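Protocol step 4 of 5: obtain the predicted structure for the target chain.
Materials: sequence only (see below). No template structures provided, no constraints applied. The aim of this step is simply to have a reference model before the mutagenesis design in step 5. Sequence pasted as it appears in the construct record:
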Amino acid sequence: MSFTYTIDGVEVIAEPSDTILTSATRAGVEIPTLCFDARTAIYGACGICLVEVEGVPKLLRACSAKPQEGYVVSTKTERVERARKTALELLLSDHTGDCRGPCKLNCPAMTDCQKYVGEIRERRYEDAVSTIYNAFPFPASIGRVCPHPCEDACRRKMVEEPISIAFLKAFAADKIEADGTPHVVSCEPDTGKHVAIVGGGPAGLTAAYFLRRYGHAVTIYDQQPKMGGMLRYGIPEYRLPKAVLDREIQIIADAGVQMVNDVRLGKDIDFDDLRDKHDAVLLALGAWTSMNMRVPGEDLDGVYGGIDFLERLGLGERPKLGKRVAVCGGGNTAMDCCRTAVRLGAEEVYVVYRRTRAEMPAADIEIEEAEEEGVTFKFLTNPIEFYGEDGHVTGMKLQIMELGEPDASGRRRPVPVEGATEDVAIDNVLMAIGQRANCEGVSDELLTQRGTIACDELTFRTAFDNVFAAGDVTNRGAGIAIEAIAEAQKAALCINNYLEGDEVRAKIPYFVEREVGPEEFEDRPKQKRQKMPGLTPEERRNNFEPVYFGFTEEQALQEASRCLECGCHDYYDCRLIRFANQFDVQPQKFAGQMHDRDDASVVQEVIVHDPDKCVLCGLCYRMCDQVVGKTFLGLYNRGFSTVVNPMVPDEARTFCASCLKCVEACPTGAMRSFPAVERVTKIV
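Step 4 output (structure tokens):
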């Protein structure tokens, strides 16, 4: 005979055969569990389904505890959540694997590189672009210009070379555009909330894209004639054709984002008015002011800031340069400046950098291509004076440097060699040593001593409740585009939470990671990284045509096939990682001995079991025994050494291939169908 009780204030009808878990599930109340399946006998292994019952001193396991008439059950008390968190932390303290590939973890925007590379390999190009759009809205543009920290972490380099992850991103976007199936942004229903964004660069456009997806009305205000910020005015045409950028900006506009150009904060629009007229404001002003070198003569005619120089070019001007041009700096902006100077007709172009090439922050490919185009690098030199005639620069005095002890950045500090200098005749200097923000029009209450906007690193909120900030204008200053995009992505989430009245915070997700060495991949056949076709150095020197042609489809498929698929195949369905993030776990506090089993078990070339991912929930062998009626799986050893061990007759080869219920039931990705990995060291 049925009876009633309450769970979290919800009245639940239960039958005598019910447990708290089964009756709660039927009533739509979720109680987390890893080891329960209604088709198998109660096991009670994971300890996560704990609940608190009024009047009962100890916590009960909902999977086995029987409800009683009038029970008042709570599933979210502090005591319950603390116990669940501890149970998860204990399980995770001996759980080894890669939740996500290192490529994704090293991308500031957390782009799912492994997923879209896999989708390209399967010729699912629209899906690949949708995967990228889940992280940011510029696959074609960023794929061309990003210094790709994802590739720095790619484990394929332990075999030969990392995968061309960035170029594959651009390929997928170009492919669907060429096929006439450009990406369309899907938005939630309108919320009635309106957000103003000041700055139409990569940060502002990214935030606008996400806020529009959340259903909010968004208006971007920008000081330049066109949207794009540094992507348009800081990166030359030969690296990023503006027609490509225009297409991606149009996709954002087509989603309903309003774009207003040629307006400047503090002049054409007022900061306080924006706050009053909008539900939230995001400041994404960028960093548009070139930093000075603080050396005599930098005010001479012919000495320009690097960003100022590139901005003029982006505005359609053709800055006039002399025959001899010096570029000061070692980053990607310096490379853009020196390579642009070559294209504008300079005959001698120098890059002056106070450290060695090994310490240069610019991408290797940018340095190599600059050298191919005739740029001369003067390493371990630093300008100490610019001098000239009739007010125009004609030369520079360089201090010869040597490397000393490492500084705060970890790079060896350049120190002057006493009495060692060099004079170089020049007609122009481009100072590309960094940029800073110009926050004119922003309330002084929001500014740091560095002139950036102070905001919380987890909420992106400023000193004013409804004002947020993201990108190069925030705390630390200018960085690479993908870092600004990453901040905007998180800031948009925080703004959405704020507008919905939720917790205004961007949580840092928890992932299980593992360290691997080259020995892990010794048996992998070497496959050359695909060489991007493009113009020769001679063809590049005198024009701004795109340097690269893009991968052919055949090249892209070959390159995508090189992926080692490091991240967990079951991530999106993994209950363990979902609960880990739900309860903000910190398993490191239970540090101790961990299993490190090199061998995976293979069931007759049908199923692979990874014991280091296994949490011994018992679902796989209970499913095999109690549901399927077979005994192909079982437990072996006791205590800390217990493992799931296949015990398989020949019939398993055919039977298991059509069953796979153990794989479907596994809550952690420890079971997967074979051949899912190319390398298995132990065949059972």
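Step 4 remarks: The chain has four domains: 3-92, 102-183+530-560, 194-288+437-500, 290-435. The two ends are 50 Å apart (CA to CA).
Proceed to step 5.
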